[in-house]
Amino acid sequence: MEWTEVKINVNTKDVDKAGDIAQMVVPYGIYIEDYSDLEEAAWEIAHIDLIDEDLLQKDRSKAVIHIYISPEENPAEAVAFLSERYNAEKIEHEIDLSICRNQDWENNWKAYFKPLPVGEKLLIRPVWEDEYDADGRIVLDIEPGLAFGNGGHDTTRLCLETLEKHINPDVELLDIGCGSGILGIAGLLLGAKSATGVDIDALAVKTAKENGTINGFEEPKFTVFEGNLTDKVTGKYDVVVANIVADIIVMFTENVGKFLKEDGVYITSGIIDTRENDVLAAFEKYGFEVIERHESCGWICFETKLKK
């Protein structure tokens, strides 16, 4: 099975932010070449100061981010997304594509995804991990597959921690850009009345439904639609959550108010700190006020409500 390798060349000063953006495209793992502190890292990690001459010749001002796109995904879409995000963040970049044979890229990353406590009540457990101690937490079983959302990324964790505060047995939840379905399923495990997810990616919809079944939730308790926000979704919700990117949040904020019940909460994440003002401007334009702001590693999550 042939995968597409995407190599993103950036300046080392931008590699952390560029890597975070790349992670939004492929949640199952990225590989970064960064030789800016080669000698120090070699000594700290391996306690050696003898380094291959070819490595010493590497350009210390540049870094390369490697991601791998599976055959059922569209590499052109991934590249378009990356270019748009990097241009928005003013990150100089070059992107190269090449075909590589599948050497179990889709499974190797699993070795690094372990059961993860999130917030005060949840434990995110990858389905292939059987040895774990829940320590009294509610266990959310997840097989992210090729859809975004395994709980480990700062944006998802911020959403989960924020969502936990707003769940009660009467809550009806809407997740925009649901990816793996992790947020909707978490809401149900925490006691929500129902959860609805929507995503434009058919693979994400399939994955979300499968994860719902794994955790014991199917329609009508857990419903997932393929499409845009206004294509299939109807009704009003107590909590609307969107863990996507700033541009899409800005776009959805215009219409999301019509899906909120009175005093409903709109939670947004996936916002890089350099785009905070753009999102805040959209909140102001469309009548939302920020109730709380949360930040982790340069990513921001907002809790908002419609102004009265």
Quick summary:
This protein has 308 residues and is an alpha/beta fold. It has eleven helices and 14 strands.
Characterize the structure shown.
- It is a single chain.
- The longest helix has 14 residues, at 75-88.
- This protein has a 7-stranded mixed beta sheet, sandwiched between helices. Strands 2-3-1-4 form a 4-stranded antiparallel beta sheet, covered by helices on one side. Strands 5-6-7 form a 3-stranded mixed beta sheet.
- The N and C termini lie far apart (55 Å).
- The chain has helices spanning 15-25, 38-46, 53-56, 75-88, 105-108, 154-164, 182-189, 202-214, 229-232, 246-256, 276-285; strands spanning 2-11, 31-34, 62-69, 93-101, 116-118, 122-126, 138-142, 172-176, 194-199, 222-226, 237-243, 260-272, 288-296, 299-306.
- The model is unreliable at 38-53 (pLDDT under 50).
- 32% of the residues lie in helices and 31% in strands.
- It folds into 2 domains: 2-108, 2-Layer Sandwich (Alpha-Beta Plaits), CATH 3.30.70.260; 146-306, Rossmann fold.
- The protein has 11 helices and 14 strands.
- The chain is of the alpha/beta class.
- The chain is globular and about 55 Å long.
